[in-house]
Design brief:
The complex is a heterotrimer of chains A (about 280), B (about 300) and C (about 250). Chain A has about 280 residues and is mostly helical. Helix content of chain A is about 75%, strand content about 0%. Chain A has a two-stranded antiparallel sheet with strand order 1-2. In chain A, helix 4 (about 100-115) packs across helix 6 (about 135-160). The longest helix of chain A has about 35 residues, at about 1-35. Chain B folds into 2 domains: about 1-45; about 50-295, MetI-like fold. In chain B, about 80% of the residues lie in helices and about 0% in strands. In chain B, helix 4 packs antiparallel against helix 6, helix 5 packs across helix 6 (about 150-175) and helix 7 (about 180-185) runs antiparallel to helix 8. The longest helix of chain B is centred in the first third of the chain and has 43 residues, at about 1-45. Chain C has one domain (about 5-250): 3-Layer(aba) Sandwich (Rossmann fold). In chain C, a hairpin with a 2-residue loop joins strand 1 and strand 2. In chain C, helix 3 (about 105-115) crosses helix 4, helix 3 runs parallel beside helix 6 and helix 4 packs across helix 6. The chains are: A mainly alpha (about 280), B mainly alpha (about 300), C alpha/beta (about 250).
């Protein structure tokens, strides 16, 4: 009897230790990013592009990466949305619950969800070769859109599946077509969920380096062209961290901090949206 | 008026069907495209030579993937070995012992951990883990290390896969019906005994699925590992030796890809191998999860 | 009344958060008899039953005031070792929940937990209790098979064997036959009648006919209050309270 108590207490201790260790690691990571990034953050940093080459030039800031990342993530999120929303609406409104196509597609999406971003980058690269595209913003948009499509779809699908069938029946019995029901009832009802899905996908897209390394390249300058290489925050960190110049490294740390802040904002906003959504759903 | 609506309906339906079809096929398109682009090298060299060859010297036409495969395995296994025990203990705590308030408060940090980009983990790894190993851990074990090694990659990767393992494990443990716990307690078992003999046993397939998912994620992770694992194309002799993983190989060398013959094909073959391995892991994990979901119904 | 009491409930009040589930329950449960708790759904029957083996501890926000004396010891006292309390009580739930193990291991689970390691002894215990619950003949050749393969009726008998294997003094039944077919239900009822020589049995049921069949003593609960209690004969033939009469007459259910 005593032995059992001792065993239980040992494990209880281990459990609390593990839990604390995990949260401590989060805290550690955030602190380091903050400590290194905060001193590097100043007005010049976010309003200027690097002067004299991103690797060697000691002056200037990371505006090129900020603009590039926003364009890339924005473009790819938009592209993914065009495919995701119809896809998920089709799965939930048009297809019957047990439909083979639905099950297969969902399984497919689940599997795609787990594929590493570097593979999406490589695939994006093969597409670019096929179309004769060179390293450019467009290439990155395509690769990242493919990467985030499963993420966005899955998040949207989860909220749409929660819609009670009675709601759809109510719409049909008023004479609405399936498309009208999909657009005016389902999409409207799940709007917060859709927004959350978009946000999550955006967050994933903006932070990913492996998929853009092949496809978007990198650049010193602020570029709005779809067909030229562009700078991105993750690559700005990666390339500029390895220099011997502390000023250039500072740019990397500033990029880290900005990227982390963007992710945190997305996390908070999507949490708020999800809570609001939960209060709407009638069960 | 009616006609317009019906037309809209038809158009929408066809568009959606097309989109759905494409999405369902996307996986196959990817597999095909990567395979197609790897063919040049596959035609020239037998697969076994490529997979088991230990020399990587592209300019001499030598493409031995073995060091990378082993390197990836090492780093992944270290990550899983660190992550699974910690995550299991934490999941048991959150699922069985902690009150619902603690559980709710635990979710945001875990989601945040999941959202932090790979490069940021890499930065932390560079600034914290690498020096830690170089100055403290390696000497402790009588080893010399630059800090850029399997262990560094493993530690950083472990933290990266915490969220996925914890979230799935807690979910699966939640599926165990209360009544089974009651049945065990009613016989006089302690909470810990109930967890050990009943809950964990029932949740085991799900926990395995969680671990496999974590394994799969670790296998394909690129940037963080690239930044801290050392990137030396040799089979690592110990955890303190550097490793070069498949994803790191691909990411590091895309620049020279088109200038050396067969290099692009080799790297795309590496991507293809990566895709296939991750696919297998994912499908295994999914199948486990489907079995579990069926059992609940 | 001539009954010795085994469980003595004194001023029991149970709260789930702000909701009061049981109000001022005071009653003595007689020793080695079948006591049946009846009442409409949601009246607190299961709460009362689960207080006896402190399974209500599992719910969040639960608060219990008052005393429950078993053999003179107040089991609600925080100093009391819960595990010992539960060992004294065997629980048969509404739906049988076999543990995720073989038939043998299900029955052996309790004894093993409490320290019995000798193989031969465990074999004896398993055989004895499976015979006690009339399951031995049907499973003796497949003891190593997973318990989930048994039929529902068999599973319930297995759960009975499992509960008896720790040698409790009291058997608690939470609507133990409501998930079973008539034949299996009858078997369980018969079992209870046989077992009451050696065990105190407390059963919660919403089937009045079942109560009439097996009860020696009856408790009638309504909205968390103990309206009436007494020997079965008296309650069923000559209830003193209006509410009791209405419930037994089928007016309220």
């Amino acid at each position: 009897m005593d032995f059992r108590k001792i065993e239980e207490n040992i494990f209880k201790g281990l459990m609390i230790f593990s839990t604390l260790a995990i949260f401590a690691s989060l805290f550690w990571i955030l602190s380091v990013i903050l400590i290194k990034g905060l001193p590097a953050l100043n007005l010049a940093m976010i309003t200027q592009a690097p002067k004299g080459g991103f690797y060697l030039g000691k002056e200037g800031g990371i505006l090129n990466a900020i603009v590039g990342s926003l364009l890339l993530a924005g473009g790819s999120t938009f592209l993914a949305l065009i495919f995701s929303l119809p896809l998920v609406l089709y799965l939930n409104v048009y297809l019957k619950k047990g439909s083979r196509l639905a099950m297969f597609t969902r399984f497919s999406l689940d599997v795609l969800w787990g594929i590493p971003s570097i593979v999406y980058g490589a695939f994006g690269f093969t597409i670019m070769l096929f179309f004769g595209l060179r390293a450019s913003l467009l290439g990155g948009i395509i690769a990242v859109a493919l990467l985030i499509l499963p993420i966005m779809s899955r998040a949207m699908d989860e909220v749409m599946q929660m819609i009670p069938i009675e709601l759809l029946s109510a719409s049909y019995s008023l004479g609405a077509t399936r498309w009208e029901t999909a657009l005016k009832v389902v999409a409207r009802q799940t709007l917060p969920g859709i927004l959350t899905a978009v946000l999550i996908a955006f967050g994933r897209g903006i932070g990913d380096a492996a998929s853009v390394i092949f496809t978007t390249g990198f650049s010193d300058s602020i570029s709005f062209s779809l067909f030229r290489p562009a700078a991105t925050l993750p690559l700005a960190i990666f390339y500029q961290l390895g220099t011997p110049f502390p000023e250039v490294q500072a740019r990397a740390h500033a990029s880290s901090l900005i990227l982390t802040i963007i992710i945190m904002i997305i996390s908070i906003v999507s949490r708020i949206l999800t809570k609001r959504f939960k209060s709407y759903v009638v069960k | 008026m009616q006609y317009k609506r019906i037309l809209k309906e038809k158009l929408a339906q066809n568009f959606m069907l097309l989109v759905t079809g494409l999405s369902a096929l996307l996986l196959f398109i990817m597999i095909f495209a990567l395979y197609y682009r790897s063919r040049p090298i596959l035609i020239l060299k037998p697969l076994t030579d490529l997979l088991l060859g230990t020399v990587w010297a592209p300019s001499r036409g030598e493409f031995g993937f073995f060091p990378f495969i082993i390197g990836t395995l090492w780093v992944t296994l270290v990550a899983v070995a660190i992550a699974v025990p910690l995550c299991l203990l934490t999941s048991i705590y959150l699922s069985e012992y902690a009150g619902s308030r603690i559980r709710e408060w635990a979710k945001p940090p875990i989601d945040l951990l999941a959202g932090i980009p790979s490069v940021v983990y890499g930065v932390w790894g560079l600034l914290v883990v690498v020096p830690l190993i170089k100055d403290h851990l390696a000497p402790l074990f009588g080893n010399f290390s630059t800090g850029y090694c399997v262990l560094a990659g493993g530690i950083v990767l472990a933290i990266m896969i915490f969220p996925v393992i914890i979230l799935v494990s807690v979910e699966v443990m939640g599926y165990v019906p209360v009544e089974i716990r009651e049945a065990s307690l009613a016989v006089g078992a302690t909470k810990w005994q109930t967890v050990k003999f009943v809950v964990l046993r029932k949740a085991l397939p799900g926990i395995i699925a969680a671990a496999v998912l974590g394994l799969s994620r670790a296998f394909g992770e690129t940037m963080a590992v690239l930044m801290v694992a050392g990137n030396v194309a040799r089979v690592p002799k110990s955890v303190f030796a550097p490793a070069y993983t498949l994803p790191a190989l691909i990411a590091n060398n895309y620049g020279e890809m088109l200038s050396i013959p067969l290099y692009d094909s080799a790297l795309l073959l590496a991507s293809f191998i990566l895709l296939v391995v991750v696919l297998i892991f994912n499908i295994i994990s999914r199948l486990f999860m489907i079995r579990i979901e069926r059992r609940i119904q | 009344m001539g009954f010795e009491s085994h469980i003595s409930v004194q001023d029991l009040n149970v709260y789930y958060g702000k909701v009061q589930a049981l109000k001022n329950i005071t009653v003595d449960i007689p020793d080695k008899k079948i006591t049946v708790i009846i009442g409409p759904s949601g009246c607190g029957k299961t709460t009362l039953l689960k207080s006896f083996n402190r399974l209500i501890d599992l719910m969040e926000g639960v608060r219990a005031e008052g005393k429950i004396l078993v053999d003179g010891v107040d089991i609600l006292d925080p100093k009391v070792e819960v595990v010992d309390v539960r060992k004294k009580m065997g629980l048969l739930s509404q739906k049988p929940y076999p543990l995720p193990m073989s038939i043998y291991d299900n029955v052996a689970y309790g004894p093993k937990i409490h320290g019995i390691k000798d193989r031969k002894k465990l074999d004896q215990i398993v055989e004895y209790h499976l015979k006690e619950s009339s399951l031995w003949e049907e499973v003796k050749d497949r003891l190593r098979e997973p318990a989930s393969r048994l039929s529902v009726g068999q599973q319930q008998r297995l759960c009975l064997a499992r509960g008896l294997a720790v040698e409790p003094e009291i058997i608690l039944g939470d609507e133990p036959t409501s998930a079973l077919d008539p034949a299996s239900s009858q078997r369980i009822e018969q079992k209870f009648m046989e077992l009451k020589d050696r065990y105190t049995i407390v059963v919660v049921t919403h089937i009045l006919r079942q109560a009439k069949r097996i009860a020696d003593y009856v408790l009638f609960l309504y909205m968390g209050e103990l309206i009436e209690h007494g020997p079965a004969r008296e309650i069923f033939e000559n209830p003193k309270q209006e509410l009791t009469r209405e419930y037994i007459g089928g007016v309220i259910s």
